[in-house]
Request: fold
Amino acid sequence: MKGIVYHGPRDMRVDDVPDPALQEPGDVVVRIERTAICGSDLHLYHGEPLAMSGFTMGHEFLGVIEDAGVDVRRFRKGDRVIVSCTVGCGDCSACRQQLCSGCEVTTVFGPLTNVFGSPLLPGGQAEAARVPFADANLFAVPDSLDAERALFLTDILPTGYMGADLAEVAPGDVVVVFGCGPVGTFAQRSALLRGASCVVAVDLDRGRLAKAEKRGCVSLDPSRESLVERVRELTAGRGADCAIEAVGLDTLLRDAIEVTRPGGRIAVIGVFPADELSLPFLSGVIGKNLTIRGGLVNPQRYVPKLLPLIEQGRIDPGEIITHRIPLTEGARGYEIFDAHEEDVLKVVLEP
Ligand SMILES: [Zn+2]
Ligand SMILES: [Zn+2]
Reply:
């Protein structure tokens, strides 16, 4: 079958790769209907060369079960399913708290090794993929939902919603969201759904800011006006109740600490490439009694809340799709997404 394979930085190729097969009795093989390129895939695309290459990329995919192991109880061949981007065993103490991202079984080789599209877990930018512990990591797609509306439940819609959840966005709150990319978009939507009185959308890209305004946000380009002053104006000098960092830049996290009011909450959902950050801790976090929370997404926790909102039309995740291209042209998809060509926001691949 065809799959997009990591050969090193800026070197993704559509290769012939082995067809996936069941390895454990709890596995399924999913024939992929739609898949997508994620902002976090670009970290590999830009990053330092990895020790291993030759693995299939992609952690956002849905499709139809082609084969199921004998221990799979909740699903069977022919079911249409969304696949969680993070894989848990479903049975350890982390998984029982719906924290499959920190599963004690699937992260034995280290954090993030249980995300699809890695050397240990071949991904879904392909025609098919093996999903371990299927009962814990799949969700049935209702017949009423087309692939494009369901696809982003695999990662970025729950990630955006998690931002609003970790920041405890409540009715009446003023919320600053750093980033108007796909995850920032969904964080803004989620903050509005939870009753924020004002969502300030921060980005440098004018096209993305215009889209944020259309969804009801106050747009702000920090290269053209002062973020601190604007937030002060919008909050009678108090500061924002919540901030959500959806980019992965430490300068933005510093800005978040600066614009958030005493006692406010900050959620970090952007992927930070560096492991260590320098932050104003005494004057910021301690001095202002701030809460900072971050995390890797757990679709297992959020999909049951978000699916009905999509079905009811209260959120349409397909709004972010700007490009639909065949999987066989996936390498070009990476180039477009990386270079911000053609006002790209999200690239969906069709196997
Ligand atoms: Zn993703
Ligand atoms: Zn587990």
